[in-house]
Amino acid sequence: MNEPTVDVTVSTTASPTADEHAAPAPARARPRRADAVVTAVLLVLAVGVGAAVARVDSWWPTFTATTTRGAVGDVVTAGPLRVRVDEVRTGTVLEDGLDTLTTGGVWVAVDLAVSGTTTEAVIETLELRDAAGRDHEVSHRARSSMMSTFVDPDVPEAGTVVVEVPARALDGDVVLRVLTEHQDADIDRPQAIAEIDLGRLEPPADGAVVEVRSPALVPGGWGG
Amino acid sequence: MPAVTTTAPRAARAAPWVRGAVRTWPRRIALAVVLGVVVGTTAAGGFARHVPADAGPERVAAGEPVATGPFDLTVRSWSVTDAVQVSALEDAGADAWLVVVVGALDTDRESRRLDRTAVTLPDELPDGLALAGDAEPDRPDPTLLVRDASLYPVLQPGLPEDVALLWPVTVAGGGAAGAAGTPDVPLTVTVPAFRYRDMTVGGGRRWAETGAVVLVDAPPGDVPPGIVDPPEDEEAW
């Protein structure tokens, strides 16, 4: 196969001549000036793009959820709410003050205290996340006393929220998630979430009854 | 010095055509193309058993769970009654409710209401029954938890429950639906399948119908006592 060959002797054997040394100066200066202009433009462009990228977050803010974590007994502040879980009870029968409700799983009653941070606030959504990552929303069948209670800033009220879960949800640690805005609120403003580790819950005895406690002011407030 | 001999691998000796098939590059490329076609056709389901287009949707026996995507749905029975949600029945201008009872297991990772189109009625209802008012065959309304007649129940993941789906119907001859009872024929209902997918319009992800459906012949059955309105207590007034 014939391959193109390069005559390397041309460049290596050619010796500088008088013509090269006599190249006209203006012809060499013009490209150098063009290079400088291009370099300057690229530098300005790079600085401009860098400055714009640095301001992306303020020009087009990305609303992401913020999560604050705590344990039973901690006062956890998440956006407009402060939450403290005081006790967790389980049962197979629920007395919510109006009805007696049975379940094929387990009733989990969480006694908690809630206040606003700076203005009046209310829990928007609440769910229990099991060890497998499945979220169990607060029961719509039962009356959870703290789901519709508006609370004043730093004036905590205590009550109960009720979640119905399958028995397998108690096989591992569960986490209470208190969401302070509607699920789709990240379109408008960031979601603040309080995650409170409830640990592993004891399965209830057969026929164990749990009751929903009415909302009541916490004596002494958060310091009490 | 003793002569050194080389022996071809056993496979090559046993099948000399293998060596022949891969001896030259054109043969290797041709072999790769043939293998690629076979593997590609298999992966695309080309060798799956042929299902004639006129075979219709899959059929599942009542009582067998149907995996719809977010739920495992088991069609249990159907019935006609005017003893459920009596006040709503009058508001709907209907003679009775057509009730389909399904077992629902939320297989998703979050609490969910049963999809609005979870079950669709056939175009023709048996025994002179007809949908009343603006009721639609794929939009049961209301839905009730069989356990305690809770309206529009939210089901928890992994916690199976029976749900009653109600459609307002008129009865041929009018009224007396309770006396007439449920026709003793099966009712063929349609259960659509869903897939969790990105939405082109509006963004986000949600369960969307795939277009695939399963047909189930629901047997006639009793109205679950848990959803029947309790008798009015005259003395309480």
The class by helix and strand makeup of chain B works out as alpha+beta
- Give me the secondary-structure category of chain A: alpha+beta
The structural domain count of chain A equals 2
Shape category of chain A: elongated
CATH class of the domain at 64-222 in chain B: Mainly Beta
Report the biggest beta sheet of chain A as strand number plus sense, adding barrel if it closes: 6 strands, mixed
Number of helices of chain B: 5
Strand tally of chain A, please?
A: 11
Low-pLDDT runs of 5+ residues of chain B are none
CATH architecture of the largest domain in chain A: Sandwich
Output the radius of gyration of chain A: 34 Å
CATH C-level of the largest domain in chain A:
Mainly Beta
Task: Please tell me what the overall shape of chain B is.
Answer: elongated
Characterise this structure.
The complex is a heterodimer of chains A (224) and B (237). By secondary structure, chain A is an alpha+beta fold. In chain A, 19% of the residues lie in helices and 35% in strands. Chain A folds into 2 domains: 17-57; 66-223, Immunoglobulin-like, CATH 2.60.40.1240. Chain A contains 4 helices and 11 strands, in the order ααααβββββββββββ. In chain A, strand 2 (76-78) and strand 3 (81-95) form a beta hairpin. Chain A starts with 8 loop residues before the first helix and ends in a 7-residue tail after the last strand. Chain B is α+β, with helices and mostly antiparallel strands and 237 residues long. Chain B has a domain at 64-222: Immunoglobulin-like. Chain B is 17% helix and 31% strand. Chain B contains 5 helices and 11 strands. In chain B, the strands form 3 sheets. In chain B, strands 2, 3, 4, 6, 7 and 9 form a 6-stranded antiparallel sheet that branches. The model of chain B has no long low-confidence stretch (mean pLDDT 85).
